Amino acid sequence: MRQILVRTPAYLLLWVLLMGGLDHLAFGVATAALAAWCSVRLQAAGQPGLRALGLVAMAPRFLWQSLVAGVDVARRAFDPRLPLNPGLVVYRPQLPPGSARSLFTAYTSLLPGTVPCGDADGGVVYHCLDINQPIVDQLAAEEARLARAVRVEVPR
Predict the structure, then answer these.
(1) pLDDT at 47 over 70
(2) Helix segments in the chain, DSSP class H
């Protein structure tokens, strides 16, 4: 019940944003409550729950990483003097397969010069613009941050 009460305002905010105002608010409240109930019921047992404060705390870093990634890739594309040593790196996440790992790969796609591009032997394959960078260490640090936000223990 607590999760439904926490999620309903978030879904209601989404409703108001999509509707462009407070039109049909009673229907929006009912829809938000139903969406919250469905999301709680459909969340698989054992799947991590999101911590709102953890995600809010990650937002500035997420935005910063997006900006840095865009600038870095643009600089490397237009400045031939910058080093490029493209290649593939396999990272073996400690997050369990499922929604937490999917969220991790989506989040890490914003690291400068890295893009997840496949799976291999329980790991995630990343295409990197410069494999001389400490890619695996960066991914491990980001995984630990994300694990705290989604309440998953990451053994290291």
Answers:
(1) no
(2) 2-19, 25-42, 52-78, 99-108, 135-149
65 and 129 co-located in one domain? yes
Residue 123 tokens, joined: 């790991």
Q: Which is more confident, 43 or 92?
A: 92
Scan for tokens 């990272």, then name that residue: 91
Which residues are 123's β-sheet partners? Answer: 120
Rounded Cα gap, residues 107 and 117, in angstroms: 13
Considering the domain architecture, whether residues 17 and 83 belong to the same structural domain is answered as no
Q: What is the span of the domain harbouring residue 109?
A: 52-149
Tokens 């290649």 map to which residue?
Answer: 87
Number of domains the chain contains: 2
Residue found under tokens 């989404």: 14
Question: pTM, whole model, 2 decimals?
Answer: 0.62
39-42 long-range CB contacts below 8 Å, 24 or more apart? 39/7, 40/3, 40/4, 40/7
Pair of tokens at residue 79: 């400045």
Q: Do residues 108 and 58 touch, judged by C-beta distance below 8 A?
A: no
